[in-house]
Protein 1
Amino acid sequence: MGVLKQNVFLVGYMGVGKTTVARRLARDLGVAAIDVDAYLQRKHGRDANRLFKQRGEAGLRRAEAKALAECAALGPAVISCGEGIVALPENRELLKTQGFAVLLESSMEGSLSRIKSMRTRPLLAQGCDTQALWDERKPLYDEVAQAHVDVSNKGTAAAAAAIAGELKRRGIYVSD
Ligand SMILES: Nc1ncnc2c1ncn2[C@@H]1O[C@H](COP(=O)(O)OP(=O)(O)O)[C@@H](O)[C@H]1O
Ligand SMILES: O=C(O)C1=C[C@@H](OP(=O)(O)O)[C@@H](O)[C@H](O)C1
Ligand SMILES: [Mg+2]
């Protein structure tokens, strides 16, 4: 095992595997994993879908921004973010300054095809234009990402291993 020197944020589109890969990566490295969505749900006693319905997207984003800052303060940890975390400039600033952001990359279609129920993602549930969302998010992911990992043809274990290799090469994870 070893030591994680700073937060590692996993960012990327819906369904690309941020939550699943973060869990696997943290387990492989023997470090903590925090999912911002799961944290938000525990904190508010309701999930992001319900927050979205009750407070609208802007309300969800405000709650998510606080949750992100709290998660970052709990680290160093592997922190999986919701796809829309990059929407707010303050979040992008945090991602750039309070850790190392890794962009998980796959095609939009490949990512969306993994999502079993549209109802689990508020923007999909309300029938958002997924291509327009992709076009809007892509430059923002590129702005914050310090590393890009192609997960399109990788299972969870291989995706986690590719990120672990990147973290070791850069001295962000140091083995004992
Ligand atoms: N590398 C992978 N290979 C195969 N299935 C995956 C992979 N990563 C995630 N999945 C599956 O895809 C779905 C979406 O993954 P999830 O981790 O929730 O993505 P995100 O958090 O980016 O929205 C889940 O059902 C998950 O089990
Ligand atoms: O638009 C967003 O920010 C959200 C994206 C989804 O997360 P994933 O990116 O993990 O799919 C969803 O779980 C969350 O409720 C809100
Ligand atoms: Mg997720």
Protein 2
Amino acid sequence: MTISIAHLGPSGTYSEQAAVAYANILHQQTKQEPILCPYPSIAKTLKAIATHQVDLAVVPVENSIEGSVAVTLDMLWQLDILRINLALVLPIAHTLLSHADSLANIETVYSHPQALAQCQGWLEQFLPRVELIPTNSTTEALQKLGEGSNAGAVASPRAAQLYNIPILASSINDYAENCTRFWVLALSESTIGSHTSLAFSTRANIPGALVQPLQVFAKRGINLSRIESRPSKRSLGDYLFFIDLEGNTTSPSVQAAIAELAMHTEILKIFGSYNVLSLTKN
Ligand SMILES: O=C(O)C(=O)C[C@]1(C(=O)O)C=C[C@@H](O)C=C1
């Protein structure tokens, strides 16, 4: 049996690297034949699974330097039918790729905004006068690098190999321990793991509107590993809160906390319980 996995493309993205790692795990565990399906944006990757074009999607959700991938959180909330099956943590080491002879000749640098942001200190120090241009992915940026052009791109060493483009500088991310967390999403929850993710809106912008929801976890000794707010898009200053907690939805204390949380929130969405797997550098 085959199983299709959507990810941000074209081939050579970090998302594809995470998808390949997951495909190998899946193949070992289930003997299913994974097919990787690249999509031109993270939004289109998420829509592909929501509209049943694919079975699974692997998307970035958070980076250790730059924080949340906003589109992933926003669409998870909007689409409302996606469930998290696994979190994968991938080390990210960016390189600067170009056909130019030296750094001094680079005039423009293309990449995904997350990748540009993770290297902003390096870019400021070594290429202070270049124009930075955002693209949908690190490998979409490579399409701008013609032979003899003075453009550069921030992408992975794997992409350099795949597209045969010289590396002008390695490990250019501002912090060496750079990691991105990806979620494997499906239309149903297939696992019960160490973490649970949920999001909610509050009923009113009043004192205690956030304290009450948070207390349901604190008083049961449930540790929150992440809290993130995103604009609700209804009005300025109105927020959604995304929470990852340590525990799963079969645990009585997590079940009790979620039941009480529903009383202190307006809309509550549970995205699933799942394990977190750290991938090593390759
Ligand atoms: O453009 C890519 O290669 C991606 O997979 C996207 C992405 C992201 O959106 O965070 C993934 C990992 C890195 O943090 C940089 C870019």
